Amino acid sequence: NPFSVPTSTPIELVDNDQLEAVQEQFRTGAMSLGWDPTTAQVVIEAHPITDVDADDNDESLDEDGANAPEMLLVRMPVGTARAFAKRTREIVGAGRPTCSLCGYPVDADGHICTLPEV
């Protein structure tokens, strides 16, 4: 049944490969997570960080959406979303330790602690 939600991560979707370095395309600002019941897919929208217009004028978009800001749209079946979430939890859980003094992550190259002034 393509519309059933698996109770565990399907074995064929488990990804334990080494992570590769990636080149940043944009930094994500606002994100949304949704569900499309017509396709039984998880939908993720990621909008880049943008500067807010100081004058906040109401320029209308072109009819073809030419002035619309970029957005990353990801649609994935439930099993894929479950595998992605599992892998993400593992990666974040294995992340950098935090400094006991300032609470910021400690890099592999060392850490210069910037304690808040009291």
Give the SSE layout.
Elements: E1 28-36, E2 41-48, E3 72-77, H1 78-93
Antiparallel strand pairs: 1-2, 2-3
Explained architecture:
With 118 residues, the protein is an alpha+beta fold. The chain has one domain. It is 14% helix and 19% strand. The protein is built from one helix and three strands; from the N terminus they run E-E-E-H. It has one helix at 78-93, and strands spanning 28-36, 41-48, 72-77. A three-stranded antiparallel beta sheet has the order 1-2-3. Residues 53-58 have low confidence and may be disordered.
Give the oligomeric state of the chains in this entry, treating copies of one chain as homo and distinct chains as hetero. Answer: single chain
Structural class designation: alpha+beta
Task: Choose one word for the global shape.
Answer: extended
Write down the Rg: 20 Å
What fraction, in percent, of the residue positions are helical? 10-25%
Mean pLDDT: 76
By DSSP (H or I, 4+ residues per run), the number of helices equals 1
The major β-sheet equals: 3 strands, antiparallel
Helix and strand succession? EEEH
Unreliable parts? 53-58
Q: Give the domain tally.
A: 1
Ends distance: 60 Å
Q: Largest sheet, order of strands side by side? A: 1-2-3
Which percent range describes the beta-strand content?
15-25%
- Count the E strands: 3
